[in-house]
Write a structure and sequence with these properties.
The structure is a single chain. About 85% of the residues lie in helices and about 0% in strands. It is an all-alpha fold and about 130 residues long. The longest helix has about 30 residues.
Length: about 130
Amino acid sequence: MRRWLEDLEARRGLDTLTAESRRLVIVSYAVLIALMLYRGVAVQSDGSAVGPLIAFVLPLVLFLPSILARRARGHAWLSFVSLLYFAQGVMVATLPGEGLRGALEALVSLALFTGCMGYARFRSRQVKVS
């Protein structure tokens, strides 16, 4: 795997890979927040407090400064948090009538994980070279 990544970096260049992984992070991050907002509002529609909405969205929002500042370490931590959303998506996908939403949540969180790990790797290597 390491050799494959090094070959990919040599062929495509760190700047290109960093930019592509950043785009993947931003798109999947925005879609996952939208899914969590939808889920929080759906749970809240039965008259409960705003607790579920905050619980679904807050862990993602806490990483917004790291994403905006383009910090590799923050992206690495966000990738680990995205695995919690992946597990949640897989669990929700097993519920009756929630298969599509759960599968979408799992796929988007997996894309976020991949993008964040790629960005953390490529950005840190890019900074070392500079």
